[in-house]
Design brief:
Layout: H1 9-20, E1 24-28, H2 32-45, E2 49-53, H3 55-60, H4 64-74, E3 79-86, H5 89-98, E4 103-106, H6 113-129, E5 133-137, H7 170-173, H8 179-187, E6 192-194, H9 213-223, E7 228-231, H10 239-247, E8 250-255, H11 257-270, H12 276-298
Parallel strand pairs: 1-2, 1-8, 2-3, 3-4, 4-5, 5-6, 6-7, 7-8
Helix pairs in contact: 2-4, 2-12, 8-9, 11-12
């Protein structure tokens, strides 16, 4: 049985986004300072928001998820708490029992397809029994991201090439989400699907991202609302490409470096000059308007 949309914060946020044809930022946080900037931005823009944590953060800062959950509960706008790229089965089971996540990405995409489906099915049932919505990754979104077991780059292929330049390569096409993949994951009863359409984890290089938009639109039409469409691999995205993905049906837009780079730049430029308190205040002051800018871009401002 899939998660009940009514009462699940992540699914309620995404259902409203699908109905209103806008996107919702799902932003990774690494500390409470970034959490503060996110919540302030969401409230300032009256925007829904999904706050995400990496599995590695649960080990580095085990109390952060509880701070995120508390902030989400007292916020004046809808905010949900999501575990991104959960790949360790034991950790997922522990999070289901002990952590206040509204949704979990059960990421078994580093396994071959049948094992991916089998493991996802088993863990999805457990999540749903506890009221937690489930996201999964179909196809294989190549590249690597800090703290995540990635598929790596295909030998001999530069991902700065356009998708068109390698569309006839069988090894690339095998990584992309197909119509059959969509039905397989729907049968597993997931709530959110992150397809592979030429997007990658990490940086795209000088040429930038080139997605198979026809494939993305086709996947959206095939889903017919049975699961929400998620976009991973947004590093280096320009606003217009992001808007194009939303027009194609994407509701959940995973964000990391695209927004957080300004935070990193602030620390690099000022760590040797300012006290910790000034660094924190300055970082929040830099990050909050960048979050607000992207809320305007994806169309979620004013929707809460």
């Amino acid at each position: 049985m899939i998660a009940q949309r009514k009462g699940n914060p992540t699914l309620e946020i995404l259902t409203a986004a699908a109905r209103g044809s806008y996107g919702v930022l799902a932003v990774i946080v690494y500390n409470v300072e970034q959490l503060t900037a996110l919540v302030r931005a969401a409230e300032a823009k009256r925007s829904p928001l999904i706050i995400q944590l990496f599995p590695s953060t649960l080990i580095q800062l085990p109390s952060l998820v509880f701070a995120v959950s508390a902030a989400a509960k007292i916020a004046s706008v809808p905010i949900s708490v999501h575990l991104d790229h959960a790949q360790d089965e034991a950790q997922i089971r522990q999070c289901i029992e002990e952590s206040p996540f509204d949704s979990i990405m059960v990421d078994m995409s580093h396994y071959e397809k049948e094992e991916n489906l089998s493991k996802t099915r088993e863990l999805a049932k457990l999540c749903h029994a506890n009221g937690i919505a489930v996201e999964a990754e179909s196809g294989r979104i190549n590249g690597d991201e800090d703290g995540i077991a990635g598929t790596g780059n295909l030998e001999g292929l530069e991902y700065s090439q356009t998708l068109l330049s390698y569309r006839n390569a069988d090894d690339i096409l095998e990584l992309l989400t197909t119509a059959a993949d969509v039905e397989d994951f729907i049968e597993v009863e997931i709530d959110m699907l992150a397809p592979s359409v030429g997007n990658i984890h990490g940086d795209y290089g000088a040429r930038g991202p080139h997605l198979d938009m026809a494939r993305l639109s086709s996947i959206s039409h095939q889903l017919k609302g049975r699961a929400e469409l998620v976009l991973h691999g947004t590093n280096d995205f320009e606003p217009e490409l992001t808007k194009e993905c939303i027009r194609a049906g994407v509701t959940k837009i995973n964000i990391n470096k695209l927004i957080l780079q300004c935070w990193n730049d602030h620390l690099a430029a000022n760590a040797h000059k300012f006290s910790v308190t000034r660094l924190i205040d300055g970082g929040i002051a830099v990050l909050q308007p960048e979050i607000e800018r992207w809320m305007d871009i994806v169309g979620s401002s004013g929707k809460a």
